[in-house]
What does this fold into?
Amino acid sequence: MEIAGDYSWERDVKEFDESKAGVKGLVDSGITKIPKIFVHPLELLTNQSPPSDQTLQIPIIDLEGVEGCERRRKEVVGEIKRAAETWGFFQMVNHGMPVEVMESLIGGVRKFHEQPRETKMEYYSRDPSKPVRYCSNEYIHVNRAATWNDSLAFYFNDGHVDPDNLPLICSKEVKQYMKYLINLKENVSELLSEALGLSSDYLSDIECMKSEYLVCHYYPVCPEPDLTLGLPKHTDQPFLTILLQDSIGGLQVFHQNCWVDVHPVPGALIANLGDLMQLITNDKFKSVEHRVRAGSAASRISAACFFLPSSKNLTEVKYGPIKELLSDNNPPIYRDVFYTEATASRGKKYGMDRTEGSLISRFKLL
It folds into this structure.
């Protein structure tokens, strides 16, 4: 992208990337205006809100009692089914993860990102094969504008990562959080399976959520939040995401042609379904566009854990519409795809700030 005059998009992106200071480094330098590479097209910044006479809120589902009471479990399964079919998002309370564990991860992520640049630089990389890496704007070379966030990412291959690779400043917090989160994922997997009318172990058996990719975002205070975004409009590609956010807010979900704020609920975790969940459920469950607004009041922390297939299934198993859900009245909408095929385009061509909807439309049968 090139703009007339002395300004060069490519040059400024290169300088920003090579600094390895991230957005936090820009803020620390004392800027009062955001660099041009962070200014988004007006059409991506529109903030169409729900009508004033209509209150929209993503469902909040209380998981208490799902393990010991059959009646309560059926109620929760019904709530999850409705949320998955209409919103693609829901907040979970009484999910079994202690609040102290959640707060500790937020604190550990903040400590990492607020270290001096020189300390963080050893982890800076754009190589997705690295099990632990810090970077800013992963899709900066294909997005139409940079976004106001830095990220620390951990890849747990089949649920494991070498503890020696974890940054010491947040190692304990990450390990403790993931222990509880993997257990919660198993519970959510069972509930989603039952919401599809399948056996509770169905999604577990096809190993579509066996590995974890934890991305811990840091959104610094922005001097011009109306000109940029923390994350642009996008859908998640994997099967399931479980998100922890702090009390600042900024996440929005696109629902009924409106951007709906996802207000932080103390002690809650957010679940959202990805493109591949929509694919295997033959559009029964929805993968929904969402974004993060930039803010000027305080820095924001979130931790999104994406659940991916086992290492073997990434390349050796195709995923397609679940046969048990199909019928003459509900024929398959999508062809079977390898996970790597389904997710390959984002980094190479499309980035995140797409306007054409989710990437799975490419796999629709004619």
Remarks:
- The CA atoms of residues 2 and 9 lie 6 Å apart.
- The two ends are 34 Å apart (CA to CA).
- The longest strand covers residues 211-219.
- The chain has a mean pLDDT of 92.
